[in-house]
Automatic annotation (TrEMBL):
<feature type="region of interest" description="Disordered">
    <location>
        <begin position="201"/>
        <end position="220"/>
    </location>
</feature>
<dbReference type="InterPro" id="IPR027267">
    <property type="entry name" value="AH/BAR_dom_sf"/>
</dbReference>
<protein>
    <recommendedName>
        <fullName>Epidermal growth factor receptor substrate 15-like 1</fullName>
    </recommendedName>
</protein>
<keyword id="KW-0175">Coiled coil</keyword>
<feature type="coiled-coil region">
    <location>
        <begin position="14"/>
        <end position="149"/>
    </location>
</feature>
<feature type="compositionally biased region" description="Pro residues">
    <location>
        <begin position="282"/>
        <end position="303"/>
    </location>
</feature>
<feature type="region of interest" description="Disordered">
    <location>
        <begin position="252"/>
        <end position="340"/>
    </location>
</feature>
């Protein structure tokens, strides 16, 4: 019985062992499947890892490329910044030059306006010179005509007539022109506009070379041969259209082609005509002054009716030497008081201050 029990126990143990073995086999198969799955996952993970490594390498390469590009762009940016700064400085310089050019253009415009004004003034002066030359030529022609016709009065009238404007005024005005150079203070930093004015367009010729008044028109006397001259007399440096023909010397009268000097009666040393000589008169006596306590002198009588329009000095000539003028002179001497009947009232009422010395 014991053996059967042991056999049963052994069978039960064997069955347990077999069941355990089956379980272990099942577990082993499960583990093998898990191992296969893990190996497959491992392979896949490796593939992913390789891919990720490749991506990392690519990213690193891209990063390096981006870094290189950034450095290149930074270098280009620095170069562009330098160029921009240079352009800005050049722009500032150009702006300053433009401002200077504008100032110089304004100055040159003002100088051009002044030059045009001066040119117009000189054209006006040139017209005056031409008019003056015309007047001189007309005067010379009139003098030639008068000399040919022996017209002394016409010659005197021409000599007295003045030519306007005087030549001295025109010469003084012409000397005052262009006293200052409008282009003297030009800027040397303006080569683009000043190089055109370096050459003088009038260097080879004088625009006023043919001016009729440039030479001395009175250097030769056009009338020197028309009248006789005296070699012994002093030579005059001033302009004399007739030379020394019209002289007040008696010896020159004979050399006068007209037979006499119409101006010989005038004194050369007297610039004004002399007055006719007067007769010597005794000085009038001093009037007797009134005494102290005496009555004041009576007033002169009023003029009579009908004598308002009578001029007491109408027939009186204060410069006449005749008896009539002296008789009508209220300021004549006391010796002629008997001829002054019509002024007795005025003479009797006039105060006599000669008695002041006796007081």
């Amino acid at each position: 019985m014991k053996i059967e029990q042991e056999a049963l126990q052994q069978e039960s143990i064997t069955k347990l062992k077999q069941s355990e073995i089956k379980n272990l086999q099942n577990e082993s198969e499960t583990l093998q499947q898990m191992i296969k799955q893990l190996e497959a996952q491992k392979i896949e993970a490796r593939k992913r890892l390789d891919e990720m490594s490749a991506q990392v390498d690519n990213l690193r390469q891209q990063v390096e490329e981006q870094k290189e590009k950034i450095e290149t762009q930074e270098n280009e940016l620095s170069v562009k910044q330098k160029e921009l700064n240079e352009l800005k400085s050049e722009e500032n310089q150009l702006q300053s030059k433009v401002d200077n050019y504008k100032k110089e253009i304004s100055t040159m415009s003002t100088n051009l306006t002044n030059s045009q004004l001066q040119i117009s003034q000189h054209k006006t002066k040139l017209m005056h010179y031409e008019e003056y030359e015309k007047q001189l030529n007309d005067g010379i022609n009139e003098l030639d005509t008068a000399l040919n016709n022996n017209d002394i009065q016409r010659i005197s009238h021409i000599l007295i007539t003045s030519i306007t404007p005087p030549l001295s005024d025109l010469i003084n005005d012409s000397n005052n022109g262009f006293t200052t150079d409008p282009f003297k203070d030009k800027d040397a930093t303006f080569p683009s506009l000043t190089h055109e004015f370096t050459a003088d367009p009038f260097a080879g010729e004088d625009p006023f070379d043919g001016e009729p008044l440039a030479n001395d028109m009175f250097a030769s006397d056009p009338f020197g041969s028309s009248f006789g001259t005296s070699d012994s007399g002093p030579k005059s440096t001033a302009f004399d259209a007739f030379g020394s023909a019209f002289s007040n010397k008696p010896s020159d009268v004979g050399a006068d082609p007209f037979g006499g000097d119409p101006f010989s009666s005038m004194k050369a040393e007297s610039p004004t005509p002399e007055l006719p000589p007067k007769k010597s008169k005794a000085p009038p006596p001093r009037p007797v002054p009134p005494k102290h306590g005496s009555k004041p002198p009576p007033r002169p009588a009023p003029p009579q009716a009908g004598s308002e329009n009578v001029d007491p000095f109408k027939q009186a000539d204060p410069w006449s030497s005749s008896a009539t003028g002296v008789a009508n002179d209220p300021f004549a001497s006391a010796a002629n008081t008997e001829q002054q009947n019509q002024f007795d009232a005025f003479d009797s009422n006039f105060a006599d201050f000669s008695q002041f010395d006796k007081v």
